[in-house]
């Protein structure tokens, strides 16, 4: 012990003594660096980044389309392209004229993903739009997942590879949604950076970070809630009001909304989003996308077993010590609990709850296993290790050391199996589990509606436009809009992106649209023309059959284009003879193959009969 005290004092003296000017500092060699704790962390980080990137690349390449679930990614990359076209010509923001009947009309439009759209632009410099969207999704999705792993490594949580495996298996829905070409990956990146600034108490940087968050996505209050949680934790532990987190996040939030290219319309759009989507205990006034509805209990258990297990571990291990709250563990306790509660309300939080559940478990485990007495830094302890008397290990101690080592391997192998199953699925021994790769591969192909929109924007044999430029098209389904907008910006549409945008602007018009598309109106065409100002109708080939049949039978409508994916109809100026769908339908490729096969079979039978009859 005397020797230990001497060496410790020597080390302290060395740190306090200034290096003479004549004596050059010793340069650390690569071999010496690789033995340091810092080098180990760097290697873990590089490995983690590579593993996450490979998973994202593998999943994103399962489909040729912009992934996944819905087609909003087509709107995002198209709008980024239109922004860049204007900027490259020295112009400012383009006018959004494609949804004139909604809250996104040319006067009131606000881009609440503005910074996200700007960050997609560099990818358009090197790739065509679909590939640009897919590569940007890989890039930002990888960074988002890596930021969670980086936070664990940064704060010295041990067994980093186990936590990496937990992140990679946290939820199939999480990785599915990370592959969508949307803004949530940036939300995770910004939130993790904000949490790091709170932990480091570098509060002033929260102001520009919140400013950027406001320009990126409408979920920016998430960082403000994080600041509130941290302020309350500091107030409990240190009996003081830490005002800076709240002040800087509030300042950034106000500045980001006011110093905004879409001010004041952005305030109105945020309010619309808030009131229509975040109604606790109430159903939506308008049927919205499936992502806004909650998971069933069975879906939660099958899609989020690791994330829910992490929450359970975090709750079990969480424990105040000496009347003090473990600050980081407490923060994630509250933050992740809010997200898991939101998860029961809406599937939209599938990209937020799982990674923060893993962070809650990691930091609770770190706080639970933290030694009561201060420990020496790992590098310093290694230097002192030869001077300690080892003594013989007790059998009981050796047993528990082996148990701990074995448990790490068991957990690691188990998570690896879960990772493989969640990634590619499992369909053996009567068990059916669809992996994330299979779900993504099942998405619709990239060119859906492309032929219909090429006709809509094209010319007939006389050189006249098939559909005049600027015409309003009555699209029967709101979620078709992103694809239509991507392929055709020559025309405008009745509604899209969110049905609430039409409902909020004109509730009566939305209710009429619902009656029309559900086939409840006997003569729909005149109402579409007179109430909506649309002279053309677009519908998926397999949807709105009743409405289209009534429109065709009325004599007001004629089919101008049809294939196996879509229909385009024109509302006549004067009522004419009813148009029979069977007469107007062009022969599809599938029908042509069937008819050709029947013709070949018929000819074969005729030839066979001729050969059998000698007369």
Structure commentary:
The chain has 615 residues and is mainly α. It contains 28 helices and 5 strands. It has a 5-stranded mixed β-sheet. A hairpin with a 3-residue loop joins strand 4 and strand 5. Helix 6 runs parallel beside helix 9 and helix 15 runs parallel beside helix 17. The longest helix has 30 residues. It is elongated. It starts with a helix and ends with a helix. 36% of the residues are buried. The N terminus and C terminus are likely disordered.
Ordered list of secondary-structure elements with their pairings:
Blueprint: H1 2-16, H2 30-34, H3 37-60, H4 72-88, H5 114-124, H6 129-154, H7 160-168, H8 172-178, H9 184-200, H10 206-216, H11 221-238, H12 244-258, H13 265-277, H14 297-303, H15 305-317, H16 327-345, H17 353-369, H18 378-384, H19 395-424, H20 436-441, H21 450-457, E1 472-475, H22 481-487, E2 492-493, H23 499-505, H24 507-517, H25 524-532, E3 536-540, H26 545-554, E4 557-562, E5 566-571, H27 581-584, H28 589-612
Parallel strand pairs: 1-2, 1-3
Antiparallel strand pairs: 3-5, 4-5
Provide a concise account of the structure shown:
With 615 residues, the protein is mainly α.
């Amino acid at each position: 012990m005397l020797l230990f005290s001497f060496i410790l004092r020597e080390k302290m003296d060395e740190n306090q003594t200034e290096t003479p000017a004549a004596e050059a500092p010793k340069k650390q060699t690569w071999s010496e660096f690789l033995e340091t704790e810092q080098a180990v962390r760097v290697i873990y980080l590089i490995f983690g980044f590579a593993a996450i990137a490979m998973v994202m690349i593998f999943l994103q390449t399962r489909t040729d389309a912009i992934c996944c679930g819905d087609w909003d990614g087509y709107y995002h990359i198209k709008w980024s392209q239109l922004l860049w076209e204007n900027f490259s010509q020295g112009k400012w923001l383009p006018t959004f004229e494609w949804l004139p009947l909604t809250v996104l009309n040319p006067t009131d439009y606000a881009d609440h993903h503005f910074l996200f759209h700007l960050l997609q632009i560099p990818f358009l410099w090197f790739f065509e739009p679909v590939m640009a969207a897919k590569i940007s999704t890989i890039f930002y999705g990888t960074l988002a997942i890596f930021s969670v792993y980086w936070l664990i490594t940064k704060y010295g949580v041990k067994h980093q590879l186990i936590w990496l495996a937990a992140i990679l298996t946290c939820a199939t829905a999480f990785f599915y949604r990370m592959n969508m070409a949307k803004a949530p990956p940036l939300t995770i990146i910004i939130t993790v950076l904000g949490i790091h600034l709170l932990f480091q108490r570098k509060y002033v940087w929260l102001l520009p970070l919140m400013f950027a968050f406001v320009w990126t996505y409408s979920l920016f209050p998430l960082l403000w809630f994080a600041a509130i949680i941290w302020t309350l934790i500091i107030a409990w532990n240190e009996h003081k009001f830490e005002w800076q987190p709240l002040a800087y996040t509030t300042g950034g939030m106000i500045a980001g909304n006011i110093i905004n290219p879409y001010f004041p319309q952005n305030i109105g759009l945020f309010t619309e989003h808030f009131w229509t989507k975040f109604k606790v205990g109430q159903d939506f006034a308008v049927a919205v996308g499936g992502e806004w509805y909650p998971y069933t209990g069975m879906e939660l258990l099958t899609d989020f077993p690791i994330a829910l297990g992490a929450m359970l571990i975090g709750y079990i291990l969480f424990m105040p010590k000496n009347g003090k709250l473990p600050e980081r563990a407490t923060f994630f306790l509250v933050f992740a609990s809010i997200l898991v509660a939101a998860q029961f309300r809406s599937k939209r939080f599938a990209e937020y709850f799982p990674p923060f559940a893993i962070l809650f478990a990691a930091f609770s485990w770190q706080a639970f296993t933290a030694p009561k007495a201060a420990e020496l830094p790992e590098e310093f302890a290694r230097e002192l290790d030869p001077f300690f008397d080892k003594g013989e290990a007790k059998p009981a101690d050796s047993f528990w050391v082996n148990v701990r080592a074995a448990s790490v391997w068991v957990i690691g192998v188990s998570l690896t199996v879960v990772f493989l199953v969640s990634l590619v699925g499992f369909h053996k021994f009567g068990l059916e589990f669809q992996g994330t790769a299979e779900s993504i591969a099942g998405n619709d192909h990239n060119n859906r509606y492309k032929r219909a929109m090429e006709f809509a924007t094209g010319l007939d044999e006389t050189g006249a436009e098939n559909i005049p430029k600027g015409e309003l098209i009555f699209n029967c389904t709101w979620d078709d809009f992103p694809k239509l907008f991507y392929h055709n910006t020559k025309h405008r549409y009745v509604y899209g992106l969110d049905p609430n945008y039409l409902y909020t602007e004109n509730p009566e018009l939305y209710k009429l649209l619902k009656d029309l598309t559900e086939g409840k109106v006997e003569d729909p065409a005149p109402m579409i023309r007179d109430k909506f100002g649309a002279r053309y109708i677009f519908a998926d080939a397999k949807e709105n059959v009743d409405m289209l049949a009534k429109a065709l039978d009325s004599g007001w409508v004629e089919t101008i284009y049809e294939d196996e994916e879509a229909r385009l109809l024109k509302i006549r100026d004067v009522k004419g003879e009813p148009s029979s769908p069977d007469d107007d339908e062009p022969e599809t490729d599938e029908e042509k193959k069937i008819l050709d096969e029947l013709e070949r079979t018929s000819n074969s039978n005729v030839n066979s009969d001729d050969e059998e009859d000698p007369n």
